[in-house]
Please model this.
Amino acid sequence: MLLKREALTSLILVGIPAYDEEASIAKVIVLARQFADRIVVCDDGSKDLTGKIGESLGAEVVAHETNLGYGAALRELFDKAREIDPDVFVTLDADGQHDPTHIPQLVEAVKSGADVVIGSRLVGSASFSGSGRRKFGVRLISKATGISADQEVRDSQSGFRAYSKRAVAVLRPAEMGMGASVEILVKAAQNGLRVAEVPVDVSYDTLRGPRMNPLMHGADVLASLIKHLSIRHPLLFYGGVGLAMLAVGFLFGLWTLVLFTQTGTVVTNLAMISLMASLLGVFSIFTGIILFTVVTAIRGR
Model:
C-alpha cells in the first residue's frame, strides 16, 4: 500500500540524471511528482528534447553542454541537493526502468534510520526482468563492491536510491562514468553511513539499446572498484598482487633451475620471466606498505 506524500517527510527531492530520454522522461516525472516536493533533472548534454520536456512539466533542469557521463550528472544533482537541503534525496533513472511508485518505500527506510537506501532488484519480492547474463553481472560487481566497502551489498549498480541529510552532506561522486554507483557505496562505508536495501520492481522491456557497450560498462565499474579497493585496503590489494607475482617468479625460477640441472643450459626466457615477476612482486609489496602508511596518516588527521 502506497503512502501519501504528506506522511513521508517535510521535503522530498527527486533527482533524475538524463541523457536523450525524451521518450520516457515525461512519464517518470509525472509519476515521481506524486511523492516529491521538488524534482531536479540533470540534462547531461542531450541532443533531443529531454531538458525542455522536464522544464515544461515543472522540473528544475540543470544542463551540461556536452555529455559528461552518469557520474558527472549525479555529482550535479548532489550539489543541488546540498543547496536545497531536503529531508530525503531520491535518485532514479530517466529511462523508465525504475517505478517511481516505490519512492515511499525508500523514503520510509531513510526515516527508519538508514542513510543510503538502495532500490534493489535482487532482494525480497523484487521483480527483475533482465537477462540471466545481466543478473550475473550485477551479482558479480555487487560482490566485489561488498569486499571493497566492507559490507554486503546485493545490488550495487541500482541507480534508484534514497539518501538522508547526513549522506547528502558527505557524499559527492568524483567518478565521471558508471563507476560512481559503487564509489558512493565505498564512500558511505568510509563515513560510517548505514546502507539498506529494499525490493523494487525493475523492467527493461521498454528500454532502447544500451548507451554503453556492456563490456565497456563492466570495465568502467571494475576499474572504479579496483581503484577504491587499492586505496581503502592497499596492503591487501598490492600485497596480494605482490605475493602472487613472487609466486610466479619462484615457479619460473624453479623451472629454470630444474632445466639447468638437466641440460646444463639456462633458458633465458624463463629466467627473465622469473626475474621480472620477482621484481614486480617486491615493488608491489613495497607500494602497498607505502600507501598503507600514507593512508593511515591521512585518516589519523
Q: What stands out?
A: Residues 1-9 have pLDDT under 50 and may be disordered. DSSP finds ten helices and seven strands in the chain. The radius of gyration is 23 Å. The CA atoms of residues 31 and 71 lie 24 Å apart.
